Batch of 2 targets.
Target 1
Amino acid sequence: MAGHVWDEPAVVGDHLIFTPHQAQSFLRVHQRNLTKDQRSAAESALTAAMDGRVSPDVARETFLAAVRLSQN
């Protein structure tokens, strides 16, 4: 379900990301330097949030952690 909107958007540069679905799309387009494991962990958390298996906030934090890793 892409309808899970985060209480606070994830801010990545000039991008505002409001949902786990948007975060998955962002990873695929903008974060190509993530390792396979980093990308998989973030995408798994985002998918789990969309399916209701984890909190959207957990997915948001996992997404932001992956973005931080990609910027190092």
Target 2
Amino acid sequence: MTGPGVAPANTQFPHLTVAQALAKPELVNGTRIAAAGVDRALRQLRKQAGITEQDIIRVPALFSKIDLPDDYPRRDLTVTYLPDAANGISTGTGGYLAPAQHGPRQGGYDVFQRATEEALGRAGVRVRWIEDWDYSPTSVRPVATSTASPTCSAT
């Protein structure tokens, strides 16, 4: 490991790049489905609470579609693929403690963390990344040694 946090070898797709992420159909489809759900929720918030696009800070997220039995009563269910930045805590003093993303990397940087820092930074919020990988259930984030790739899309 080259610093604090979880060694890449202990993540499902170590050294995942953006290109590799975009080649994973389960992630592309899961993120597309989740993005449609977010859009529906935002339409309701605009209609019922009067929020506008200026009230929304968009951060990237990556979702995986859940495989369900044919007789399951619902379709197109997704699960957050990465520790979602939206699951952080505001400090109330201009800071935001967010779970480290473990997202695809480009130029040596986690693209999700960089995009989140930029989006929240425009609103005057400082992001501090908290390592919480070991607190997530292994059934959701299994450890693998494959270098296969997941998909990334920002919502």
